[in-house]
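in:
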């Protein structure tokens, strides 16, 4: 096989003219073929370079994804006040401002020095007092069981002796000080057509965040009747959260509604100005970072929080082809978070940022934050005093630390995610004329009946001196008439034998209105649109596109195809076979004679193809002892063929 034969037979464009046309066209065609090959190489080089450098690109995959593909978000609610006066009253230190300031510095604002021995002994005695131990005993019982019997508190001394070392450190002080369970902050909540009173353990204010101790509500589990008997911690952190199914419905009637009571009369200390609540909307498997996601809700208002989810997805081909750094995201399990383990949390960017800051606290502050104690086994010291000062510095820097784990891997986005953007509107609440006809009126009365008979009565009456006496007067009238104050949460004054102009009735309604204006807020959280947008992260240049692009360039410049590639391989194998046979024949020609003394008489056979007659001729060449090479013999017979 010669170059001329290849050019005559190949399907590549232009090659057959190189030997078929006389000069000067021969050289023109050589230049054309050579230029086409160089152009193809140039274009393919840049196409290959672009392909190897390109990673992923994000595009809007769809703007009409149904809400059946969306999780209804979880909601975390924090009272701005994190320490109530009534708790200090219960501990018997309400008027001891020196001790109160000491507790603020040790557990809330931080300090420059540790407690001296005398103050340390006093704080330990405070934390081992009957009032404090009973509060902690109640906390552990409420969170680990689906119900609680107050009679078990008589065994508080046994509980103290069993957990004394932990109790003396005040590890749960911030949880006990913020608010009591059973319908104190959340008076009522509803999700779709399901409604729950605030005394449900689902609304316990024990969830730790970077702001403080809050309440987190996961509507899919909190309002599931089949999960009623599951204890608080198992419902908040159990595997059932991984079993929550997608699906939401549009509109306020299908959303989450909450009636909140700030109890501003019981405020004593908080790090943020103002009064009311902080709310975060987040995925149910996320640790909410309040400093990033918080919304402020003030008392005396109705807040409408419209949620617009966006789905973020990554194609399987992009996940398989690229590593996390190139694709810019992690799939679930690719980057485990030690202090937000995957049995309770998913991987997500904000979770990774929280983990990064948490690791900095453990490493540099040498203590464990009280609101998130998963690092306690490594650092068995709660962050108080100087440790708390250090912790607050890193908490304020959440978002600045982006490396986690022993290898200090960079935090990246999640390959599969749902983000929730919100829009907020508000209006005044309540209206004096309609408040008495609404369900909220009765919910407030029932809550205040308990408050007036609790440790809160002192601070409550300082701010609303007529409120508790007015409630007691109406209670007395109801008891005398054998009627309930609110039957089915409806206020009907006439059922108590009172007319609308009765001064006792008007005083009660006025006092409740003033209380509601200063303390109550209604929050409605709902899906704004019936469809959502899905953004897809995919290969910028898929492999098939690169192959098609390369094939197009080769075809454009050279007329090259897969058949052409096979042609080249075919001819290359022919040349290889020819060379092999040639070398073999030459080797045989050099073999010694046979043992009987006869001279070696080799022969060489070759075939040639006649293009004119389509005949196949075979010649046998007798080789004698001569200096002529096999190639020379082939050349002579080739000339004979041409003649």
């Amino acid at each position: 096989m010669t170059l001329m034969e290849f050019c005559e037979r190949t399907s590549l464009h232009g090659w057959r003219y190189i030997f078929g046309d006389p000069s000067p066209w021969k050289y023109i065609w050589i230049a054309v073929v050579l230029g086409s090959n160089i152009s193809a190489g140039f274009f393919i080089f840049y196409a290959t370079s672009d392909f190897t450098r390109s990673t992923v690109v994000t595009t809007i995959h769809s703007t009409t994804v149904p809400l059946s593909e969306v999780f209804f978000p979880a909601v975390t609610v924090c009272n701005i006040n994190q320490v109530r006066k009534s708790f200090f009253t219960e501990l018997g230190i309400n008027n001891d401002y020196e001790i109160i300031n000491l507790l603020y510095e040790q557990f809330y604002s931080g300090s420059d020095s540790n407690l001296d021995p005398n103050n340390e002994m006093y704080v330990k005695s405070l934390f081992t007092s009957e009032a404090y131990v009973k509060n902690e005993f109640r906390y552990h019982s409420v969170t680990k069981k689906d119900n609680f019997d107050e009679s078990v508190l008589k065994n508080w001394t046994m509980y103290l002796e069993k957990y004394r070392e932990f109790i003396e450190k005040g590890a749960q002080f911030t949880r006990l000080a913020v608010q009591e369970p059973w319908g104190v902050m959340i008076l009522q909540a509803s999700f779709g057509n399901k409604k729950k009173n605030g005394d449900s353990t689902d609304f316990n204010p024990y969830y730790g965040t970077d702001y403080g101790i809050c309440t987190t509500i996961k509507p899919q589990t909190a309002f599931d009747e089949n999960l009623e008997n599951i204890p608080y911690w198992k419902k908040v952190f159990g595997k059932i959260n991984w079993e929550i199914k997608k699906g939401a419905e549009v509109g306020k009637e299908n959303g989450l509604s909450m009636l909140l009571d700030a109890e501003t009369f019981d405020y004593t200390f908080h790090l943020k100005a103002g009064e009311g609540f902080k709310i975060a909307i987040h995925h149910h498997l996320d640790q909410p970072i309040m400093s990033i996601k918080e919304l402020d809700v003030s008392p005396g208002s109705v807040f409408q929080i419209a949620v617009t989810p966006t789905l973020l997805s990554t194609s399987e081909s992009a996940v398989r082809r690229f590593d996390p750094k190139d694709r810019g995201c992690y799939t679930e399990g690719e980057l485990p978070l030690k202090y937000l383990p995957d049995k309770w949390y998913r991987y997500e960017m904000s979770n990774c940022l929280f983990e990064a800051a948490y690791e900095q606290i453990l490493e540099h502050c040498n203590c464990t934050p009280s609101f998130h104690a998963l690092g306690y086994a490594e650092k068995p010291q709660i962050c108080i005093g100087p440790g708390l000062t250090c912790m607050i510095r890193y908490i304020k820097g959440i978002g600045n630390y982006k490396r986690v784990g022993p290898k200090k891997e960079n935090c990246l986005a999640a390959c599969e995610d749902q983000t929730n953007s919100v829009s907020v509107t508000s209006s005044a609440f309540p209206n004096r004329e309609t408040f008495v006809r609404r369900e909220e009126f009765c919910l407030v009365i029932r809550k205040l009946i308990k408050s007036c008979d609790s440790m809160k009565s002192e601070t409550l009456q300082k701010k609303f001196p007529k409120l508790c006496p007015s409630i007691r007067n109406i209670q007395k009238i109801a008891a005398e008439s054998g009627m309930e104050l609110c039957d089915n949460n409806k206020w009907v004054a006439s059922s108590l034998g009172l007319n609308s102009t009765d001064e006792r009735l008007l005083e009660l309604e006025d006092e409740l209105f003033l209380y509601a204006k200063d303390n109550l807020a209604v929050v409605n959280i709902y899906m704004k649109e019936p469809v959502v947008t899905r953004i897809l992260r995919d290969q910028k240049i898929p492999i098939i596109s690169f192959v098609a692009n390369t094939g197009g360039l080769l075809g454009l410049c050279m007329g090259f195809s897969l058949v052409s590639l096979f042609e080249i391989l075919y001819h290359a194998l022919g040349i290889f076979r020819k060379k092999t046979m040639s070398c073999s024949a030459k080797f045989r020609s050099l073999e010694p004679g046979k043992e009987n003394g006869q001279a070696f008489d080799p022969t060489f056979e070759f075939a040639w193809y006649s293009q004119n007659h389509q005949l196949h001729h075979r010649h046998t060449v007798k080789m004698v002892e001569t200096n002529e090479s096999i190639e020379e013999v082939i050349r002579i017979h080739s000339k004979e063929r041409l003649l």
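note: The first strand starts at residue 56 and ends at 66.
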